[in-house]
Amino acid sequence: MKLLLLNCLLLSSLSLTAAFASNKQQEPISHLRLKATPEVLSNAWESYNQALDASPLLVKSVTAGAILGAADFTGQKLEAAQKNDGEAQLDLARVGRFAIFGLVLQAPWNHFYYQILDGALPPTVDPFTATTGIKVAIDQFVQAPIFTVLIFLFLGTLEGKSIDDVKKQLDNDYKDTMLANW
Q1: How distant is the alpha carbon of residue 36 from its chain centre?
Q2: Buried b (16+ CB within 10 A) or exposed e, 31-55
Q3: How far is 122 from 124, CA to CA, in rounded Å?
Q4: Are 36 and 19 in contact (CB under 8 A)?
Q5: Is residue 81 packed enough to be buried (19+ CB in 10 Å), middle (13-18) or exposed (0-12)?
Q6: How remote is the C-alpha of 148 from its chain's centroid?
Q7: Percent of the chain's residues with pLDDT above 90
Q8: DSSP assignment, residue 89?
Q9: What is the C-alpha separation between 174 and 127, in angstroms, rounded?
Q10: Residue 7's CB: how many other CB atoms inside 10 A?
Q11: If you average pLDDT over residues 140-165, what whole number do you get?
Q12: pLDDT of 14 strictly over 80
């Protein structure tokens, strides 16, 4: 299981290693090209799915942490580029907060929430059913409002905000956040 998880965490490293190993020329590293062959990608995907089967919560948590951290990093870079602000400082603490959020809250919450939801309303083969509509309604009108409050509380706590400050932020931003979500 540890080997499978390691494969999951190091997908890009494994792909790079395979590409470099297959490069027979002795070129400077700057000239090496990643050879993302279908076989390399297929093996990486298979390893990820095996790790997911072996340890779903851990793999989902690590994946969500990596994706949310990378998404915030990218968002900050894009925002700076749009503003033509070459001097903009990357807020690494914020990147870390989003990575921790994905690792500790978002992935576990969704993992268990969807287990419960699928247990109560089993998935259907056809995605266009009344069951799917009911699940979407529950997700948007029950789960999302609750989870959004948890997001504000969790990230506010990581930022060092008091409960009163989080309440003020909710008063100011909750309605717009929910409308954007829907």
Answers
A1: 23
A2: eeeeeeeeebeebbeebbebbbeeb
A3: 6
A4: yes
A5: exposed
A6: 16
A7: 73
A8: P
A9: 31
A10: 18
A11: 97
A12: no
